[in-house]
Amino acid sequence: MLEFLTDWSVIIYSIFVSEYFLSGVNALVATGAGAIAGGLVVHRRAERDRLHREYIRELEALNVITALLFDIVSTYISLKNQHVAGICERYYKNRATVEQKLGRSKEIEVDFELTRLEKPFSNPEKIINIIIDGTKISDRTLSAISTFFRCKLSLDNTIDRRNIWIEEFRKSNDHDSFKCFRYFGFPYENNSVDNEFRDCIDALGASTDDCIAFPMIAINDLGKYGDDLLRKFKGSFGDVDFKLKKISFENIENPEILPSMTDYEDWLKAFKSSS
Length: 275
Fold this sequence. Notes:
Elements: H1 2-16, H2 19-101, H3 125-132, H4 139-171, H5 176-184, H6 196-237, H7 265-269
């Protein structure tokens, strides 16, 4: 029995060390290594393609958001240029003129400007959908866009309040002198003051400026973020053919129509570390 086992051991050993067996094992190892290496190459290529698509998708999203924000800025610049700036300027000019005449003249001619305003149409909801879809913009940019939404709502409410006030004012049978005090917010004889319309004028100007300023801040931030993203894209994939939208307000035809950004310094300082 022992001799039988010994013979089989010799046979099995001779098989394992035979040239044919070893070459077969080597072939299997080489095939396995090749398969692993090939799998790694395919994985790396797939990962590179995925990264390329992500860069393109985000850069394209930034271009769309920038275009939508520019359309919003243009809408409110147009509103201010055609209506709001003139309404506010004439109101306070007339108020100063009337205030100088109070107590000096019994008859004061007042130019009541009672032109209704229509709320401007804009569709900022598209921006939110694009942001949710995968852009990685900064907290400051998100806050600027979010603040614009609140300012838009405030402006819409102000326009509605002003229009309602105008309709009620037109139907009023009060004497013109009484209307004058109500329109301009001058104190009555009992020292009470009705500032409702004056507050509407102030809010109209301030909210319109806000609806211009905050999208401008977001556009500026998106431009810087887009430049950084495109630089990383080119660093990973070489010279790529992609153009970012660039928006500049430096050469605007009527630059004084733009709000002064010094009025927003406190807001900007809150995000200084992330800008």
